[in-house]
Amino acid sequence: MTTAVFDSAQTRDWTRRFAESVYATEAELTALDQQVGDGDFGTNLAAGVRAAGLRLDRTGDPAGSAETLGAVATAFLDEIGGTSGPLFGLLFQALSRAAADSGADSGAGLTTGALAEGTAEGLAAIRRVGDAAPGDKTLVDALAPAAAALRAAEGRPPAAALAAAADGAWQGVRDTARLTARRGRASYLGERVTGIPDPGAVGVALFFASAAATVRTLAPHLSTG
Description:
Blueprint: H1 8-36, H2 41-59, H3 65-79, H4 84-101, H5 112-130, H6 140-152, H7 158-176, H8 199-209, H9 219-222
Helix pairs in contact: 1-2, 1-3, 1-8, 2-3, 3-4, 4-5, 5-6, 6-7, 6-8, 7-8
C-alpha cells in the first residue's frame, strides 16, 4: 500500500539501508576515488554512516524523522573529515530541518513536499560551501537532478518521489563520466579522469536509492549501455 508520508520508522529504515549500501559498495567507491581523488571517499562515507548508526542507537526507538536525519547530519558534520563529510552533513541537516518544519515529528509524517524542500536547501548549501555548479563533475551533478525530480513529484507518495529522485541521481552519476572535472583533486588530472564517474555523485545516488532497497553493487547503475 502506498502512503502519503514517510513515518519515523520508514525514515530510520532508509538511513539503515543507506549504511548497508555504503558498506556493500565501499570497495567500489574506493576504487573509483583512487582514479580521480585521494582514494579515501569510500572509507570516509563508511565512517560517516557508522558514526550515524551509533548516534541513532543512543537515541532509542522511536525517533522522529527530523531527529533521525539530524543525528545523521551531526555525525557527518562533526565526526568525519575530508571534503565529503561536511557536504553530506549539509544535505542531511537540510532534510532534518524540512522534516521538522513539515511537522514530521508531531505525527504528520515526512511528505514529498518536505523531501523536495530539504533536498533543494541542501543543494543550495552545498553549492555555496563547495562553490560547485552542475557540470563541474561533483556530487552536485547527482543532487541537482534528484532535487528536480522531487520537485516535479510533489503530490505523489514519498516512495514514488524518492524512486524518481534515485533515477535522476543515477543518470547524473553516469553523466559525470563524460565531464571534465572543475573542482577538487580530479580537476588537476584533466583528461585522465574522462570516463570515470564522480564518487561523490555516486554517494548521493546511493542515499536516494536506499530509500527503497539496499544497493549491493554499483556496476548495474554505472553502465551506460
